[in-house]
Amino acid sequence: MTSVARWDVLELPVPGPAGVLFRHASGATAYAEPFQSGDGWVVRYSPSLEGVWSYDGGSLECTPATSRGPVRRAGTTLRWADGTPYRPLTTAWFGDPQQWAAARPALAASPFNRVRLRVSDGIEEQVRDLLAADIVADIVLPTDSSVVRAAVNRLAAYRNVTWCLESADKSRELAELIAELDSSHHLISMHEATDPGPPWLTHLSVRLENLRGVSALRLAHDKPVFVDACGHEGNGTTPDTSLRPEEMLTRIWEGTVRGAYVTHGEWYVDPSSVSLVPWSDGGSRPRGVVAQRLRLLREVLDELPDGVEPIDDYRDAPTLAVPGSYYLQYLGEHQFPDRTFSLPEGEYDVDVLDVWNHSVRRTRESVAGAGTLTVRLPGTQYQAIQIRRTS
Amino acid sequence: MSIEKWGLHELTLSGPAELSGGNPFALEFQVTYQFRNRMVTVDGFYDGDGTYRARFSPDREGEWSYITSSSAPELDGQRGSFVCTPPGPGNHGPVDVLGRHHFSYADGTRYDCIGTTCYHWTYESKELQELTLESLRSAPFDKVRMCLLPTDGMRPERTPFAGSTPGSVDVDRYDPVFFQEFEARVADLLAMGIQADLILFHPYDRGVWGFDRMTPAQDAAYLQYVVARLAAYRNVWWSLSNEYDFNHEKTIADWDRLLQLVQRYDPYQRLRSIHNGTKMYEVFTPYDFGKPWITHQSVQHWDGAEVAAWRDCPKPVVIDEIGYEGNAGRRWGNLTADEMVHRFWQGMSLGGYVGHGESFVDRETRAWISIGGRLYGDSPERIDFLRAVFAGLPRQSDGEVDADRCVLHYLGDRQPSAVELDLPDGSPFHFDLIDTRAMTITPLAEYSGPSHIPLPATPYLALRGTR
Fold it and tell me: Which of A168, A206, B75, B330 is geometrically suited to a Cys-Cys bond with B70, CB 3.0 to 4.6 A?
């Protein structure tokens, strides 16, 4: 019997274009539509449950997973299908297939674990390369339903995919088409949707320059919020493509510590050379400074405790916390001399993160009784404070 | 088992009738329906006597399967399936917004949106409810605004909540029998092709029942229960509140939250709005209909001419209250039929929709807007005429009148002897004179370019040119 690991990709040759229904002993079903490959038809399927799946013409065995599976929505946050938290850090790369070979190694070596891409002839290769690098591909789909159908039939079986519809008046028809065809139940958003509230959109994909707005969006919709467009670090000719690096970096930190996921973009042009392609337009590597400086955020995200949420206790600075045991506060453009926290009695590791200069100062502090802890700061911009209880 | 498209699948299971220290109405119970890979999760509900139900309205033909999930073992992990068949005769699916300012049924059929109001008709005697249905059967209306909750002065046998004596109602529990009877009426309207615009809150409680001042958690639980029971009826619309701004116990932030909750609970995204009050001719504070969870503008206002301004917001304008034909002692309820129908023509010819109401207080049955019963006024017949005229206008795919093929000029309460129209050049428009009061359509001549069209100098006329 054919066997495939849970959440891996199986390709089955089938006689024609008719959809295939897979049935699991539990009663679960999945549906996949074939696509043309060479002279024949092929169906791609990624089983979500271990055990035997049968279909008209055969059966297959799904063996234990060797991966964490696709990304799932969990309230306003995200988890891999195996339950572990997923903390995306995204960059936008809207290049052409011939630009991919150069960009691929740069992405694999970057702090990003999600990239926004456009559907093209090269999308399948891009998705596979990104799967090997453990990077999620957020695929921007046009409003043409035949393109959507073809993309979903070819790509849905890859666990590292999420779907993003281009902005249109209505999201329902296309989102439900994707849901119908996608046997892996990947996330679906519509960029700049007029109404991101309906249940067929799993999360928000917004354009937002003032990242303080994400807190209200999270509360209003009770879904994960992706700021997939907040501008580009660069020297382009528009306000959107000429952000100072400090501004790009602080937008990403501000939104992240408010519980959203903020996409990096970069748009450096060389007026004397046409060969320099801006990164987000299909360039070969990020040339700015923000991508490098996001390594610190990547490290912080990788070590965030499970269950961390934005809290409202510190109205003058966004704060993520597991109350009593973990705090991450971001101070943005403000130059506080110090910050005071209310903490239960205990020992704490206190990190002052200079986000712009990529430096960390760690001290061990004690809090006696139900007390307070004052953290002294350098009095410069772009500081974050991380407090972790050690006992 | 088979269910027609946009019909209603009901799953019935037995579960705990009492929960030690718990509330069966708050028991977690959901059903996930699946077509191909698409999953739609609906909330189930407790229907009393140990019976739990879930309702679902399928929107794709073919095989659907389902699986239940619950914290109660007997309601968990139950699987089943049914086949969704083509829609039966007269089933055009739910109404949705078409383009920016219009409506259509899911199968593409035009929806006229000519509504009326009978706030508490389902609280009346069985005989009177049957009379209301009989009246609606021959009336031109395709939508009825109706309340779930009683007013302060009413003393019904049943309310949506457990108990029918003010002061001793348990708002954490519901009365399944109230809902069963209410749903039967919603189903009656559905069978007649009439939308049920359900008003979920209103300000006429003033603390007597306390339904206007429940806690946020109680509001949320009530809305979740109502949506679980009623959303699967394809003719349901949600009107979060009547005259929301007259309830001083709630703020705009509260209404935002409650509207968002209904959006979250409703798997189908039925049409959703909230209706303002007015202090007639002065105070008008509509909700901000631009907010994303609002599908259409449910307005109370006395002037149909305002439609033009409200169309700046890219959502359909429905003036659900524009005054009522009748002879009541309140100025909202004593318009002549001429004035009522004039307001309809004004609002509709500007690309909006207008709702009817009637309030005669000295007839065999009390005011139609409160209890239904019998219609006495002269406006319904003329509204039927208007409905036919508007249904026959050539339209674009977004529902707007196709200006290249049709011009419509409503001349209002003026009595011009002629009008000057600057028509497009090219092939001429064939003009008809529409007398909205006499309900006649008289052919005139053909015109194009700058045109002088003589008229009989009487009010309530409209000119229609088509080519």
Answer: B75
